[in-house]
Amino acid sequence: MIIGKIDYINLLPFYIFLKKRLKESSSRKALEFYKGSPAQVNKKFIKGRVEAAVISSIFSPKYRCSDFGIVAYQKVLSVLICPGESKEDEESNTSNVLAKILGVEGEVRIGDKALVQKSRNCKDLATLWYQKTGLPFVFARFCYRSKRAKKYEMLADNFLKSHTKIPTYLLRRYAKRSGISQKEIRSYLKLIGYKIQKKEKMGLKKFLRLAKKSGR
Fold it and tell me: Which of 84, 141, 149, 168 is 20 to 30 Å from the Cα of 68, by its Cα?
């Protein structure tokens, strides 16, 4: 298995799960080799350098995808629009489109750098989406190429059924790296959903329709 890795806190449970499941050392090494920001992993997947990855929702309709993804309900904290000159986040694809759809101007910030943003003037894009639609927002989906579809579908299903615990040493490492406390990391992860069900699919469908309408 060759899987791309987005090294953000919101996917920490999945990669802990993966490391236990990947039996071949080559697969574990590939996970570390093919890592990067969401935008970078998107490119790796689109170019066929990895067989599977959690990719931005905006690209997902072109590929086979599971019901595992990154879901936010009424807030997410890690996807913000902040005051200032309008600027897209180069690490993002979906969040930049979301900001355009919502008609908000400013600087888009995603990931760990958004989590350390303490300014009250920044707005949570997941909250703005919920206020507009009453639906959860699907930021990304676990997608794969047909070559090993069954294996990746099973992998996604098993993750959704799992209850992965994050070891204290990893929490400590990510807290040091990100600049937020272990308690804040745990609280943040409670905001993240991973299962794409009926309402989540409705939210995804609406987003993709609006994105297409806006020419994105």
Answer: 168
